[in-house]
Amino acid sequence: KFLRRKCQPECAFAPYFPPDQPQKFANVHRIFGASNVTKLLNDLHPHQREDAVNSLAYEAEMRLRDPVYGCVGVISLLQHQLRQLQMDLYCAKSELSRYQNLSITTNLSSLASESTATAYHHHQNNTSGSGGFGRDHHYHYHHHHQFFPQHQQQVVRSFDAGNNYDASLLAMNI
Fold first, then answer.
1. How does residue 119 score in pLDDT terms, banded at 50, 70 and 90?
2. Quick one: which of 8, 23, 37, 157 has the most CB atoms within 10 Å?
3. What sequence ranges are listed for the domain LOB (predicted)?
4. Distance from the Cα of residue 31 to its chain's centroid
């Protein structure tokens, strides 16, 4: 029909361009030319022809939509989106690593603070009665140094549990 002649029974296009999709052949013919498509199909093995026709039809449709870039424009856009998503993933992993390191540092700081306070407490018990230091000083020392790491641990735990991310950052003054 598009070549101004009737399709013959041995027509190379008939199996790949069904009559209910006339625009498919029209696009391929307009962009690539029927003779070029015939040569291409004849050079391929029969099992490769359907994929080739589908590729040609897609490329022809994209070339008609975007005469300058065709399907390369779509490919470039998808590659750009992929690079952007990879960069976002890298940034998210880096941020997660910082929070995990903060959690480890907080836990180590907490353990070090507890061991320092325990050593100080044992020292005070061994030298009880000397100076004005006693249990009250140990209580204030221990709780003063424990408050901040426990607060950080709580924030990190809420972040790790998947709770409100923004609230966790605000609590950490970030």
1. low
2. 37
3. 1-96
4. 37
